[in-house]
């Protein structure tokens, strides 16, 4: 009888321990799922900080939209580069962090004009999809208001992660206000996706342009971001002296 009681007690302990283990595992899984969802959506409700982007441009630097290309620079700049980038692209973000100050100085000195092509290469890589196109369209609307570079710099300074939530149209509109855009046309353009068709059409041409194709190893060749072009040739921007070479 004593042995039977001990056996029953041992079985209960095993049963309780087993249940406890299941509960712990379930809690860890649920906690992990909640954390993953929270991390994935961490941009939700965030205010995009414009930082100091409004104070860095010289007064005589112009920002002009021509179709879906925005040119930033002074009249008579001797050198021009074309920069093809996606607001979601993490390598584009690194390019901006590394060379923003040098490019900005060359622009302010009147030595360089930059033609920005914001492309929706990673449009399906945000959750939900669409951030690359929405942000590109919003940046063109910001260019119409003379605030392209301020808007551009703020989005890169607060860049969302690839594969996660970007910023919605309301957040992009609020950023426009925070960089000094007061024209109500800006919000209308963002909400309507006014430039979406033009951006997509231009991107299709860019992807099919053999002059913009690069080798990525493993037999892969095609268009990627960021791509920098000077005098019709792709520049190796990973070479730290590339801008000095462009400026001559």
From TrEMBL:
<protein>
    <submittedName>
        <fullName>Thioredoxin domain-containing protein</fullName>
    </submittedName>
</protein>
<keyword id="KW-0732">Signal</keyword>
<comment type="similarity">
    <text>Belongs to the thioredoxin family. DsbA subfamily.</text>
</comment>
<feature type="transmembrane region" description="Helical">
    <location>
        <begin position="15"/>
        <end position="37"/>
    </location>
</feature>
<keyword id="KW-0560">Oxidoreductase</keyword>
<keyword id="KW-0676">Redox-active center</keyword>
<keyword id="KW-0812">Transmembrane</keyword>
<feature type="domain" description="Thioredoxin-like fold">
    <location>
        <begin position="70"/>
        <end position="208"/>
    </location>
</feature>
<dbReference type="InterPro" id="IPR036249">
    <property type="entry name" value="Thioredoxin-like_sf"/>
</dbReference>
<dbReference type="Pfam" id="PF13462">
    <property type="entry name" value="Thioredoxin_4"/>
</dbReference>
<dbReference type="InterPro" id="IPR012336">
    <property type="entry name" value="Thioredoxin-like_fold"/>
</dbReference>
<keyword id="KW-1133">Transmembrane helix</keyword>
<keyword id="KW-0472">Membrane</keyword>
<keyword id="KW-1015">Disulfide bond</keyword>
């Amino acid at each position: 009888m004593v042995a039977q009681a001990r056996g029953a007690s041992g079985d209960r302990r095993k049963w309780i321990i087993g249940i406890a283990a299941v509960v712990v595992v379930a809690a860890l899984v649920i906690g992990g799922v909640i954390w993953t969802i929270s991390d994935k959506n961490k941009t939700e409700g965030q205010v995009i900080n414009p930082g100091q982007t409004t104070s860095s441009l010289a007064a005589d630097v112009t920002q002009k939209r021509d179709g879906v290309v925005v040119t930033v620079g002074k009249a008579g700049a001797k050198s021009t580069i074309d920069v093809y980038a996606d607001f979601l692209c993490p390598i584009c973000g690194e390019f901006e962090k590394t060379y923003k100050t040098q490019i900005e100085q060359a622009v302010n000195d009147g030595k360089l004009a930059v033609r920005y092509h914001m492309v929706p290469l990673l449009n399906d890589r945000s959750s939900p999809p669409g951030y690359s196109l929405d942000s590109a369209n919003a940046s063109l609307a910001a260019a119409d208001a003379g605030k392209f570079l301020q808007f551009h710099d703020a989005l890169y300074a607060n860049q969302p992660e690839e594969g996660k939530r970007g910023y919605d149209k309301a957040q992009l509109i609020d950023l426009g206000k925070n960089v000094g855009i007061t024209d109500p046309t800006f919000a209308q353009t963002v909400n309507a996706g006014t430039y979406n068709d033009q951006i997509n059409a231009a991107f299709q041409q860019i992807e099919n342009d053999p002059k913009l194709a690069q080798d990525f190893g493993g037999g892969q060749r095609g268009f990627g971001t960021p791509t920098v072009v000077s005098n019709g040739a792709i520049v190796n921007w990973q070479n730290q002296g590339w801008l000095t070479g462009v400026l001559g």
